[in-house]
Amino acid sequence: MGKLLYLNNTRPDITFVTQQLSQFLSNPTVAHHNAALRTLRYLKSCPGKGLFFPENSSLSLQGFSDADWAGCLDTRKSVTGQCFFLGHSLISWRTTKQTTVSRSSSEAEYRDLASATCEVQWILYLLQDLHITCSKLHVLYCDNLSTIHIAANPVFHERTKHLEIDYHIVREKLHVGVMKLLPVSSQDQIADFFH
């Protein structure tokens, strides 16, 4: 498992399976061993895959966040995933289980969106330290329209009062113009972003 974790640095395609298998390191079963062997066979079958960074990529930051509601069958916690591109180069990605059980799919997506917003801010600080300026507005895509509505609407919602206060960082960053939030399904807006 240590070797698979190390390979996550250049092979994001095994991130999810590595995260799943890592949960059972203290008490693995035959099924877990077979899944690890299957992952190794997959890696051996495609050694040329990995991350590549083209030199002529534009400097625009865009991110994608997604969460499955109650995806972990053991704990009913949601599993979240995020990826961030600088131009066409994947520079950051993560898949993890949320720390709390979400009561709705919107809550699970909003918690992931808050985490992704913090990652956008961290990447911007890093780029600023490296004296790199992005050419376009930073965009974060989310596939849940109710989550986008909650983030864009500063009015108190009775249905969202159980969300912790720190998850409203999304609203703050949208308000000050750090990023723009778009739905994944909006192909016209995505095309406008690239032109």
> What's the CATH topology name of the largest domain?
Nucleotidyltransferase, domain 5
* Parts with pLDDT < 50 across at least 5 consecutive residues: none
Relative helix content: 40-55%
The major sheet is characterized as: 5 strands, mixed
- The first-level CATH class of the largest domain is given as Alpha Beta
Order of helices and strands: HHHEEEHEHHEH
Task: Calculate the mean pLDDT score and round it.
Answer: 85
Structural class: alpha/beta
Q: Per CATH, which architecture of the largest domain?
A: 2-Layer Sandwich
Radius of gyration equals: 18 Å
Q: Report strand %.
A: 15-25%
How far the N terminus sits from the C terminus, by CA atoms, comes to 42 Å
Number of helices: 7
Describe how the helices and strands are arranged.
Elements: H1 2-7, H2 15-22, H3 30-45, E1 61-68, E2 79-86, E3 89-97, H4 105-129, E4 139-142, H5 145-152, H6 169-175, E5 180-183, H7 187-194
Parallel strand pairs: 1-4, 4-5
Antiparallel strand pairs: 1-2, 2-3
Helix pairs in contact: 4-5
